[in-house]
């Protein structure tokens, strides 16, 4: 892939994002931002019996940020929390058919949002 170009998968997830929106009374949620580019991603999780039964996102950002959040929500649905925590930004970028080097931080932001949302859930249930 030429530097700066997006794969067809990235373009598809940008133009037709999966799971966009929010979950009212989410079991876990998190918002992370990247000050370097101004992108912000918020992830919402619905969890039952330690499994992610639904995941939604809202992203303010570029095509790569939206595609990364969209792909992340697709990858985690139905997974246990421990399985979801094994998904890294590298997995997300690979599933998207690659990201330009300058846009890899978008997949990192999606991973951070996921990890922080799971942390949020675990803190809530620990109380």
Q: What features would you highlight for this structure?
A:
3 strands, 3-stranded antiparallel sheet, Sufe protein. Chain: A, globular, 5 helices, single chain, alpha+beta, 127 residues
Would you tell me the structural class of the helices and strands?
alpha+beta
CATH class type: Alpha Beta
Taken as a percent bin, the fraction of beta residues is 15-25%
Tally of structural domains: 1
Strand count: 3
Would you give the CATH topology? Sufe protein. Chain: A
Q: Tell me the number of helical segments per DSSP (H or I, 4 or more residues long).
A: 5
Question: What's the alpha carbon Rg, rounded to whole Å?
Answer: 14 Å
Oligomer: single chain
Helices and strands, in order, run as HEEEHHHH
Based on the coordinates given, report the CATH architecture: Alpha-Beta Complex
Task: Walk across the major sheet and give the strand order.
Answer: 1-2-3
